[in-house]
Amino acid sequence: MKYKLIKPVNSNYNAITQILINRGINYNDIYHYLHTTDADINSPLELGEENLKAAAAALIQCIKAENPALIVVDADADGYTSSALLINYLHDLFPAWVENKLDYFIHEGKQHGLSDCIEIAENYALVLILDAGSNDYPYHEHLADLNIPIIILDHHEAEKISEYAIVINNQLSEYPNKDFSGVGITYQFCKYLDSLLGQKYADQYLDLVALGLTADMMSMRSIETKHLILKGFKQENIQNPFIYSMASHNSFSLGDKITPMGAAFYIAPYINSMVRSGTQEEKELLFSSMLKYKAFLKVPSTKRGHKPGDTERLVDQAIRVANNVKSRQTKTQDEGLKVLEHLIEERHLLDHKVLLLLLEPGQVDRNIAG
Ligand SMILES: [Mn+2]
To answer: What CATH class does 44-234 carry?
Structure first.
């Protein structure tokens, strides 16, 4: 076997030190890296106090007036965890408003932001876009013309800060951690609301933070990100109904503890396959299972062999459906791969370094192509 060392082995280092140095951690930072604390979580104010204030004011005003608001749920695991975190958090504070006035929009395909829901958004007094939306400039202006404020909690790079939306974004502010995803920004926004309201609800959602950061593949070299991922996956912080049930259901693969690797292989892919291959109804079901006030509702059973009138917990149904969708996706993926392998063999393409295959529509399921 041929291999090349990233760096020469230093006999003064133990294995952990050598590995961390190879991964780009400075020797002097290793002790700190291995012993992170809550002091490594940045202050939400680093995201920009003006914008945080404006966002909190717009949100509180909407709730006080009992006006309707819309959350746009981004189409991946970071987007789902971001939106679930905010809805759960607000439900702790304002349950009646959340249950009656707060709607969420789940994209049908892989769209982001307002492109497929701008007309729906016009019916609300406030629109929140999580894990997306920073550069939807024309849509911001359109809603601003209608006097509808927009709050964006995002981590994607954008050309500029929109003049027509309240943008909270670590890439567009002085926030020191750039390896932070939508759910991290949402968590920080809730921490800020906690500080305004004298509450401590945000820290109940650390498992969602850990899952979103992991699924979005944020670098563990960031001390804040690493701290929140390890803290969020601690046994005592596994509280979200979806994550808790996934962990028990997949305990054979995950072991008795969720590790970042375990979450990346045995939890996040179930959300992503659902987003890609699930029906609209199935996606709604999965997202609902992340909401504390919906997850334990009794719903009509869809279990094989169920009798009329049988019920089950929403979260149990969601986990079963997520498993089915995942196997369905793996099957289509395998079938698609067979089609490609056949084409490659038939056309003797293996001598090329890069292969680009032009497919007829329908030759490979469109949800797995690309
Ligand atoms: Mn994201």
So the answer is: alpha beta
